[in-house]
Design a protein that fits this description.
This protein is mainly alpha-helical. It has 7 helices and 2 strands. 72% of the residues lie in helices and 5% in strands.
């Protein structure tokens, strides 16, 4: 009888440990997969390129002082981010690509502000690269409405 009680207690204790371990692993999601990190980094590089391409050429030509410097810095960040993206193979490397592109977007924002053009949404470290990248993607997607045809659509996470 004592043996049966001991076995039952050990089984219950094992079940409790298993449940606690499972809950902890679900509460803390692991890092984004390499493929997710690559897609996220690529998205930021494309966004930076689009931001530079979207700046009015006439405004760029007349840019002086800080606006010209910011546009130059943004273009350099785009070149660097593209080169980093071509070489990246790990999640950490893709995170660095994302940081470079976000910094370039800050320069675009500064240039557009100096030119008196609508600066649009500004990328920030908090929304772009803090925490796991999968969380950052959800935060950014919720804050960036996109337009499709004549109706407004917000990307879902």
């Amino acid at each position: 009888m004592k043996l049966a009680v001991l076995v039952a207690v050990l089984l219950i204790a094992g079940a409790v440990v298993a449940v606690v371990a499972r809950r902890r692993s679900v509460d803390r999601p692991g890092p984004a997969s390499g493929l997710d990190a690559e897609a996220d980094a690529n998205r930021w590089v494309v966004r930076l390129g689009g931001s530079l391409a979207g700046t009015d050429v006439r405004a760029q030509a007349g840019a002086g002082g800080s606006a010209a410097q910011s546009l130059t810095e943004a273009a350099e960040h785009l070149r660097t981010a593209r080169a980093q993206l071509a070489e990246a193979r790990t999640s950490d490397q893709y995170t660095q690509v994302t940081r470079t592109a976000v910094e370039g977007l800050r320069h675009v924002h500064a240039a557009r502000t100096a030119l008196g053009v609508d600066p649009g949404a500004q990328a920030t470290d908090r929304t772009a690269v803090s925490g796991p990248l999968d969380h950052a993607v959800r935060v950014v997607r919720r804050s960036e409405p996109s337009r499709t045809g004549s109706r407004s659509v917000t990307a879902a996470s």
